[in-house]
C-alpha cells in the first residue's frame, strides 16, 4: 500500500524537453490542468503528496519517476541515459533523503531511467533500452539483491514505439500484468495473468495501480473495459499533453 507520492509541477519550458513522439507541441496551460487532475486522483487514492516547484533548468523534470527507484527502505538515485536530464537527480536527492535513510546511486558507466523499472510483488523487471544500459541494470540488480529483492533484465532496444520498459507493460497487482503485443509472449511474463493491450490502444499500457485503484489514460475504452472486467476500480485521466513528450502516468510520480 502506498501512502505518499512525490510530484513536480511542469515548468513553462515543458515543451522544450526531449521527445520522440510526432504529436505536436504540448500546451503548457492544458498540461497544468492535466497535472492537477493527476494529483487529485493520487490524493483520492489515499496518498499524501509532496509537490515540488518547477525546475526551469530541466524541461523534462516533471517526469520524476526517471530520477529514482524506490525499493522498500532503499532509494536508488538513477543516472539518466539522456545527458540533458542528469541534473534532475541532484534536484530530487534532498527530497528523497527526507524519507529514506538508505540512499545509493547508479554510477558511470551505468545509465538507468526509472521508467525502465517495473516492480511486481518484490521482483523487479529492468529494461535494457536506449536510456538504461546493462552496466546500470546490473548495479541496480545488486542494490536490490542486498535488500532481498530479485531482478531480471528485459530487452527493450529496437521495439518500435517503446522508449522505456513501462511504455509497454504495467503491473496491476493481484497477479495481473498489462502488456503490449511485443512483450506478451516473453517467458518472463507467462506466470502472470496477462492483460493484452490492443495495438491501437498501446499508450494505455502505462497504467498504474495505486492501492485499490488503477489510474489509466483517458480515451482507451477497450483497455478500460478489460480492467473493469477484472474487478479493478478505474480512474481515467487525460494525458494528451504528456504523451506528446513521451510521458505516461507512471512517469509523473514517485510512489511509496
Whole-number mean pLDDT: 98
Give the termini distance in whole angstroms. 8 Å
Q: Any idea what the radius of gyration is? A: 17 Å
Question: How many beta-strand segments?
Answer: 15
Structure description:
The chain has 256 residues and is an alpha/beta fold. The chain has six helices and 15 strands. The chain has a domain at 4-158 and 234-255: L-arginine/glycine Amidinotransferase, Chain A. The chain has helices at residues 28-44, 86-97, 134-145, 181-184, 221-229, 240-243, and strands spanning 4-8, 48-52, 68-71, 74-77, 102-105, 117-120, 123-128, 150-155, 169-171, 176-179, 193-196, 208-210, 213-217, 234-237, 254-255. It has a three-stranded mixed beta sheet with strand order 2-1-15, with helices on one face. Strands 3-4-5 form a three-stranded mixed beta sheet, sandwiched between helices. It has a three-stranded mixed beta sheet with strand order 6-7-8, with helices on one face. It is globular and about 40 Å long.
Structure characteristics:
three-stranded mixed sheet; 6 helices; 15 strands; L-arginine/glycine Amidinotransferase, Chain A; alpha/beta; 256 residues
Secondary structure blueprint with pairings:
Elements: E1 4-8, H1 28-44, E2 48-52, E3 68-71, E4 74-77, H2 86-97, E5 102-105, E6 117-120, E7 123-128, H3 134-145, E8 150-155, E9 169-171, E10 176-179, H4 181-184, E11 193-196, E12 208-210, E13 213-217, H5 221-229, E14 234-237, H6 240-243, E15 254-255
Task: Describe the structure concisely.
With 256 residues, the chain is of the alpha/beta class.
Amino acid at each position: 500500500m502506498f501512502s505518499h507520492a512525490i510530484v513536480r509541477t511542469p515548468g513553462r519550458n515543458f515543451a522544450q524537453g526531449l521527445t520522440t513522439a510526432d504529436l505536436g507541441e504540448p500546451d503548457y496551460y492544458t498540461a497544468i490542468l492535466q497535472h492537477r487532475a493527476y494529483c487529485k486522483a493520487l490524493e483520492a487514492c489515499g496518498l499524501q503528496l509532496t509537490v515540488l516547484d518547477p525546475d526551469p533548468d530541466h524541461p523534462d523534470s516533471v517526469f520524476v519517476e526517471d530520477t529514482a527507484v524506490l525499493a522498500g527502505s532503499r532509494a536508488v538515485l538513477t543516472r539518466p541515459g539522456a545527458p540533458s536530464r542528469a541534473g534532475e537527480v541532484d534536484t530530487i536527492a534532498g527530497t528523497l533523503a527526507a524519507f529514506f535513510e538508505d540512499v545509493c546511486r547508479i554510477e558511470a558507466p551505468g545509465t538507468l531511467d526509472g521508467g525502465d523499472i517495473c516492480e511486481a510483488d518484490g521482483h523487479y523487471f529492468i529494461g535494457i533500452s536506449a536510456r538504461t544500459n546493462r552496466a546500470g541494470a546490473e548495479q541496480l540488480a545488486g542494490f536490490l539483491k542486498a535488500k532481498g529483492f530479485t531482478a531480471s533484465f528485459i530487452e527493450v532496444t529496437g521495439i518500435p514505439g517503446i522508449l522505456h520498459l513501462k511504455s509497454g507493460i504495467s503491473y496491476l497487482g493481484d497477479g495481473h500484468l498489462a502488456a503490449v503485443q511485443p512483450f506478451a509472449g516473453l517467458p518472463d511474463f507467462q506466470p502472470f495473468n496477462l492483460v493484452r493491450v490492443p495495438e491501437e490502444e498501446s499508450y494505455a499500457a502505462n497504467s498504474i495501480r495505486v492501492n485499490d485503484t488503477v489510474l489509466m489514460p483517458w480515451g482507451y475504452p477497450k483497455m478500460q473495459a478489460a480492467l473493469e472486467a477484472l474487478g479493478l476500480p478505474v480512474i481515467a485521466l487525460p494525458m494528451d499533453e504528456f504523451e506528446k513528450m513521451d510521458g505516461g502516468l507512471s512517469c509523473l510520480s514517485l510512489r511509496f
